[in-house]
């Protein structure tokens, strides 16, 4: 039934009820009035009866008076007879009047009988008097007349008293009746009034409420329908029309929509996949228990999802069907899934994040356990990614990360999950792997996918990465353990420069220590825990100190003095190498300045890492520090290993070109260890070649090493380079090197690396004689705090 009809419906049962109430009230009111009036009437009768009785008593007393006059002989007997007769008549009349007014008939009869008896005795007395029998008359008077009169008087007195009480009682009863009636009328009036007021308020509320509901239903986007169990609607809110009407009827206004021309088949609009569920909802809705669910409904603007609730109001006469309420939740669901997506995905690359990975990892582990397979986890961390950010800015860094994510994802199977854990760290979850090799193969393939250069807004970028590999069962059973071990394996891959590293139990402690150290090293750089030791480079010809090599040490607050091998690789893998080099350069130039100020100019050599060569702003840093300390560029020497140059010879050559242009001298360190041909170095702006200490140290025992050293010295000299032999530990080696025409010697035999102050003391204490002579002073090896 359309909602509109309810507006005109009158509450018929209310009319009947009202009428009945009025009638009953009137009846009750009338009755109580009648009773009250009647009571009043009765009271008045009683009073009248009493008056008649009083008159009757008076008459009897009158008769007694005449009888007295007769016996006293004061009145003639005839006159007495006449007066007595008249009085007796009046008394009879009064008695007759009193009976209908409430004098009990029995009392009246008794009075009549008594007075008759009295009259007969008086008449006998009068007859005796008239006969002159005065004595007999006197006796009769004493024995009968007087007692009878007393009897009559007593009866009359009590009767009169009774009548008076009755009259009074009836009067007060009637008074109470009047009061009660008044009170009742008051109650009736107020009840009737309040009821009318209530009725008015209810009617108004109903009118307003209905108007409000109508407006709500008209305006609401919620669908409201009254259906039968087959889904046929015989009432539908305008929103249903707006949703389902063909496009050209979309302007239907609310009033039209209320009058549905043909029943709406709402079930047909429900998505076929949801239809069965929807029908079940209609079937199962019962009074008092609404059935509900989410259903997709296709309207003229496409498919939306509705939160539907169906209530059975068949028993409700004003409804008479199932009431369907549907609220469009499409946007809410979309927002919800958007939020869920955001919570589980990395904002930059759109890849799953750590949370989603953890979730899928748990699932995969459970699935693998059931299926008897294994789950592989790869942890991939880009090498030197920080340099990309530092060099090109975060914008390029972000774009690069996105492209890397795409490439990595492209190299995987659909069942595998690639996630970005943050920064330059990615993780790959491999389902259904059987052996460790399966996982390491994928890891290698991922690295291969990264080998070709990336092009980010016109800049070509090369990316390298390190991957740690673990497999469930073999390396752990739960996600947390496996994640930790993949991390350990990844760090091992980085430290060992091997690209891919599968977890081994032995690497744990080592790796954990390194991780802890990275944080400590960062603090060390800020807290000046790094100190420089200096090792002299001594001329073979003049035995003079031609320069010093600055070698860094870490004065660790707990672990004592740490050597470069303990922390330089860590610095190289954690991006700390650039600040470390800057730190060393700054300290070394400060010292060079101090020596300059002391009147003893000394060339200071500082070691570089490969990463410093790839830092575009490195030459700029060197120039700035030279200027800051006021040290001539020629007093600074930079030692670069041939392996560092060979990582990216083009970039290295460019950087070395910039540095030598500043006037800084370049020295090739550890020469011979990298098996690079000298020819490759001829194009580099270098001035010095340091023969790797392993050759120098073995030289005296192994003739082939001696041959290598002498050939390198010859070749270097041919290229116009200064030749330095490091690792000179013995006098024997020193002598051999002198025979090979080597220019400079460096080694424990001469001096261990020592702090600057110790170096100054060492210098002050030496007597300079040519190294080639047998009498050259031995370096204060024992007193050296280094090595
Ligand atoms: P390096 O540049 O080849 O430095 C020479 C290393 O040989 C030093 O070890 C020095 O103590 C050691 N040495 C000197 N004479 C002898 C000797 O007669 N016998 C033996 N067995 N060794 C000798 P140290 O100080 O432990 O440095 C090791 C490496 O650490 C250095 O090798 C260098 O590559 C690196 N390093 C040191 N300081 C720095 C630095 O400030 N920056 C960078 N990037 N690397 C540094
Ligand atoms: Ca060196
Ligand atoms: Ca060296």
Write a brief caption for the model:
This protein has 26 helices and 23 strands. With 787 residues, it is of the alpha/beta class. Residues 1-11, 249-261 and 771-787 have low confidence and may be disordered.
| SS strand fraction | 15-25%
The radius of gyration is 65 Å
Structural class: alpha/beta
The total count of strands amounts to 23
Distance between the termini: 102 Å
The major pleated sheet works out as: 8 strands, mixed, barrel
In round numbers, the mean pLDDT is 84
Count of DSSP H/I helices: 26
- Globally, the shape reads rod-shaped
The spatial strand order of the largest sheet comes to: 14-15-17-18-19-20-21-22
**Poorly predicted runs of 5 or more residues:** 1-11, 249-261, 771-787
Which hetero ligands occur in this complex?
A: ligand C2E, calcium ion
Helix content class? 55-70%
List keywords for this structure.
787 residues; alpha/beta; 8-stranded mixed β-barrel; 6-stranded antiparallel sheet; 26 helices; rod-shaped; disordered C terminus; binds calcium ion
What does this structure look like?
This protein is of the alpha/beta class. The protein is built from 26 helices and 23 strands. Helix 14 links the parallel strand 12 and strand 13. Helix 3 runs antiparallel to helix 4. It is rod-shaped and about 215 Å long. The chain binds ligand C2E and calcium ion (2 copies). One calcium ion binds next to strand 19.
């Amino acid at each position: 039934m359309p909602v509109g009809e309810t507006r005109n419906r009158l509450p018929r049962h209310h009319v009947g009820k009202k009428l009945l109430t009025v009638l009953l009230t009137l009846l009750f009111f009338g009755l109580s009035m009648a009773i009250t009036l009647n009571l009043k009437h009765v009271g008045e009768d009683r009073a009248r009866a009493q008056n008649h009785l009083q008159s009757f008593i008076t008459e009897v007393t009158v008769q007694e008076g005449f009888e007295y006059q007769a016996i006293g002989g004061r009145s003639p007997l005839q006159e007495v007879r006449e007066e007595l007769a008249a009085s007796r008549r009046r008394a009879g009349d009064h008695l007759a009047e009193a009976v209908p007014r409430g004098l009990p008939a029995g009392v009246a009869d008794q009075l009549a009988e008594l007075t008759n008896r009295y009259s007969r005795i008086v008449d006998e007395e009068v007859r005796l008097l008239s006969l002159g029998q005065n004595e007999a008359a006197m006796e009769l008077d004493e024995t009968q007349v007087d007692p009878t009169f007393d009897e009559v008087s007593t009866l009359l007195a009590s009767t009169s008293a009774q009548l008076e009480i009755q009259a009074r009682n009836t009067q007060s009863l009637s008074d109470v009746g009047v009061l009660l009636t008044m009170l009742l009328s008051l109650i009736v009036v107020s009840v009737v009034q309040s009821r009318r007021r209530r009725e008015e308020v209810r009617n108004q509320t109903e009118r307003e409420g209905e108007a409000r509901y109508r407006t709500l239903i008209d305006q609401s986007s919620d669908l409201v329908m009254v259906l039968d169990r087959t889904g046929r609607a015989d009432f539908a809110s305008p929103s249903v029309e707006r949703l389902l009407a063909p496009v050209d009827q979309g302007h239907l206004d609310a009033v039209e929509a209320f009058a549905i021309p043909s029943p709406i088949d709402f079930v047909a609009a429900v998505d076929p996949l949801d239809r069965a569920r929807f029908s079940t909802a209609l079937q199962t809705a019962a009074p008092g228990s609404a059935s509900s669910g989410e259903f997709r409904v296709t309207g003229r603007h496409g498919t939306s999802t509705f939160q539907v609730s169906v209530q059975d109001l068949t028993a409700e006469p004003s409804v008479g069907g199932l009431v369907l309420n549907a609220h469009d939740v499409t946007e809410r669901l979309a927002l919800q899934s958007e939020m869920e997506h955001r919570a589980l995905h990395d904002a930059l690359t759109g890849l799953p994040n750590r949370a989603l990975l953890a979730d899928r990892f748990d699932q995969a582990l459970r699935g693998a356990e059931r299926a008897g397979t294994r789950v592989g986890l790869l942890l991939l961390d880009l090498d030197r990614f920080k340099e990309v950010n530092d060099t090109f800015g975060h914008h390029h860094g972000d774009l690069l990360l996105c492209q890397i994510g795409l490439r990595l994802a492209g190299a995987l199977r659909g069942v595998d999950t690639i996630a970005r854990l943050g920064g330059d760290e990615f993780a790959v979850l491999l389902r259904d792997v059987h052996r460790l090799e399966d996982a390491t193969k994928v890891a290698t393939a991922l690295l291969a996918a990264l080998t070709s250069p990336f092009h980010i807004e016109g800049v070509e970028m090369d990316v390298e990465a390190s991957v740690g590999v673990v497999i469930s069962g073999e390396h752990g059973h739960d996600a947390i353990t496996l994640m930790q071990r993949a991390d350990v394996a990844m760090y091992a891959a980085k430290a060992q420069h091997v690209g891919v590293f599968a977890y081994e139990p032995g690497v744990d402690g080592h790796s954990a220590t390194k991780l802890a150290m990275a944080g400590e090293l960062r603090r060390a750089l800020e807290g000046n825990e790094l100190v420089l030791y200096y090792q002299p480079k001594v001329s073979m010809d003049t035995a003079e100190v031609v320069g010093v090599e600055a070698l860094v040490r870490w004065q660790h607050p707990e672990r004592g003095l740490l050597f470069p091998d303990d922390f330089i690789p860590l610095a190289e893998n954690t991006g700390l190498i650039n600040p470390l080099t800057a730190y060393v350069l700054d300290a070394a130039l400060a010292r060079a300045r101090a020596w300059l100020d002391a009147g003893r100019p000394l060339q200071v050599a500082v070691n570089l890492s490969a990463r410093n060569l790839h830092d575009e702003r490195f030459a700029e840093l060197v120039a700035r520090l030279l200027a800051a300390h006021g040290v001539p560029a020629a007093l600074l020497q930079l030692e670069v290993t041939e392996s560092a140059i060979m990582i990216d010879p083009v970039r290295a050559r460019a950087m070395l070109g910039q540095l030598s242009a500043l006037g800084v001298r370049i020295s090739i360190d550890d020469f011979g260890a990298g098996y690079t041909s000298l020819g490759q170095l001829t194009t580099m702006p270098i001035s010095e070649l340091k023969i790797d200490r392993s050759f120098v140290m073995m030289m005296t025992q192994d003739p082939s090493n001696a041959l290598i050293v002498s050939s390198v010295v010859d070749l270097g000299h041919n290229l116009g380079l200064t030749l330095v032999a490091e690792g000179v530990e013995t006098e024997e080696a020193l002598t051999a090197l002198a025979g090979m025409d080597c220019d400079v010697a460096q080694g424990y035999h001469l001096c261990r690396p020592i702090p600057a102050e110790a170096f100054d003391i060492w210098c002050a204490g030496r007597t300079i004689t040519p190294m080639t002579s047998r009498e050259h002073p031995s370096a204060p090896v024992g007193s050296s705090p280094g090595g």
